[in-house]
Automatic annotation (TrEMBL):
Belongs to the endonuclease V family. Keywords: Cytoplasm, DNA-binding, Endonuclease, Hydrolase, Magnesium, Metal-binding, Nuclease, Nucleus, RNA-binding. GO terms for biological process: DNA repair. The keyword Translocase does not apply. InterPro entries: Endonuclease-V. This is Endonuclease V. It comes from the Eukaryota. GO terms for molecular function: DNA binding; metal ion binding; RNA endonuclease activity producing 5'-phosphomonoesters, hydrolytic mechanism; single-stranded RNA binding.
Length: 248
């Protein structure tokens, strides 16, 4: 991995971070029942097993609060940027932006009012993960939701973290992910009464952390919020049909 490329990416993250908003920016975000919110998006990339280049880039748009699929876009893409921890956005964001652009051209009335991203936002090594990158470049509110804990800035998968997880009594309960410096970069959320394993929610863009957590919980039928779950299921199904010999 070339040092100049990493430096270029770090510089780009720094530049984009200046534009990031981590406060509520839309009227619906401040309302108890999110009235005014009608469309929630979800994005994901699924890879053919053993192939880290060819993937299905997926966008779905669901109705809110019904969480029924209104729109889906599955597209095979070839990733050109290398995988480097902390810089996942440079591999994936261009294809997710293209999906949003196609939607804007085809059915602009279905453009989501918020996008759930399968990955982290501010909870990231450099406080600018995939959800932040996509949010700033798309100009849409974004929420990062990760299924596994990124051990970053002193947040660790240790006994204390496990005891905090054990203390989550019911769906909607959460605790902050606090860095060594005392900064809160996200929250661990018990997404449903049935799911004891939390998900990790962080701000992407144009939304506050508390609103992001509340909205994520309201979109969960299972452990993972429905927009991301549908994007994941549909991209895997797309690969399964087109590449039946590959185990995805």
């Amino acid at each position: 991995m070339s040092v100049p490329l990493i430096q270029q990416w770090e510089s780009e993250q720094d530049r984009l971070r200046q534009q990031l908003l981590d406060v509520d920016s839309e009227d619906w975000q401040t309302r108890p029942d999110f009235s005014g919110l009608e469309r929630v998006g979800g994005v994901d990339l699924s890879f053919i097993k053993g192939d880290d280049v060819n993937a299905c880039a997926q966008l779905v748009v669901l109705s809110y609060p019904q969480l029924e699929v209104l729109y889906e876009d599955s597209q095979m893409v070839a990733l050109t940027a290398p995988y480097v921890p902390g810089f996942l956005a440079f591999r994936e964001t261009p294809f997710l932006l293209e999906a949003l652009e196609r939607l804007k051209k085809k059915q602009p009335s279905l453009l989501p009012q918020v996008v759930f991203v399968d990955g982290n936002g501010l909870f990231h090594y450099r406080e600018f993960g995939l959800a932040c990158h996509l949010g700033v470049l798309s100009g849409l509110p974004c929420v990062g939701v990760a299924k596994n804990l990124l051990q970053v800035q002193g947040v660790a998968k240790d006994e204390q973290h496990q005891s905090q997880i054990n203390a989550l009594q019911k769906g909607g309960d959460s605790f902050p992910l606090v860095t060594t410096s005392g900064k809160v970069l996200g929250k661990a959320l018990r997404s449903s009464d049935e799911s004891k394993k939390p998900i990790y929610v962080s701000v992407g863009h144009m939304i506050s952390l508390d609103t992001a957590v509340r909205l994520t919980h309201s979109c969960c039928r299972y452990r993972v919020p429905e927009p991301i779950r549908q994007a994941d299921c549909r991209s895997r199904e797309y690969l399964r049909i087109r590449f039946p010999a590959a185990d995805t």
